[in-house]
Amino acid sequence: MDKFAQTIAFFPPRGQDFLKNKFLTAKLKNVRFCDRGIIMLFVVLGFILFFLLVSGLWFSKQILHREELAKKARSKARTVKQQITDIEDICTTLNMYDANVSLLTTIYSHIISLMQKVISLENTQENHILLEHYENKKNKLAETLPIKVGVPENDHQISILKRHTGKAITYLKGFIAQGLLNEYEGSEHITRLRRLKVQSEVDAFLLQGNKCEQKYDKITAASYYKHAKELLLSTDVNFDNQTEQIKSISKKISKIFNSEEEEKKREKEKRLEREENSHPLTTVKKTEGNDGNE
Known about the structure:
Structural class: mainly alpha
Oligomer: single chain
Order of helices and strands: HHHHHHHHHH
Low-confidence stretches: 281-294
Number of helices: 10
């Protein structure tokens, strides 16, 4: 007999039944409580696993989103840096053929603002070094400008000059519209660049004409001079000395053709002289025959 039976043996039968019922009920409650605890434990573990799964998905989505944003930022930074490279090429051309400190300072200020945008998109040491490089270039412009502006020497250089001056004019119009440059100063730069585009091409034709003339290729030289003259006559850009240039070029062309006519006359005289010298006997016989008749 177990201890519980020994304990209730001293009670009357009704008391024993009552105690037995209470004991069984308590045991059932303990069993139910244990089952509920296990179920609650599984529920809690399920919630924890669900939370971890959802958190993992959220964090992975955030990481992918950040990577996508970083990728877009790097792409934008590359685009802006390519734009800076193109503008720097324009500055190189203007430095060679225009050498205007005010204009170049304005353009380099724009390059620096673009470089700051690049750093906001991609904050790297390399980009900070580039920013410092452009700031130094801007500060030392007056020291690096050539004493005398150059003249394009071939069609390729003329093409680059025309393309870059056209782009510079477009940028200047944008600066004026954005309020980065006052309208008066911007208009002066635009007018000068339009003249530069035409004048440089004229100077290039004149340079090539002079070179051909020095090589005694006068026909080709005249052709270059004609191109220069036609360019000045057909342009809608006004020059202070446009008429004087046209007259000067016309004199060069006339001089070439006059010298060509004189050269042809001299050649003809020399040819006649050679022909006379090559038939001396015929001349003598004709002279003797005339004497006998007399």
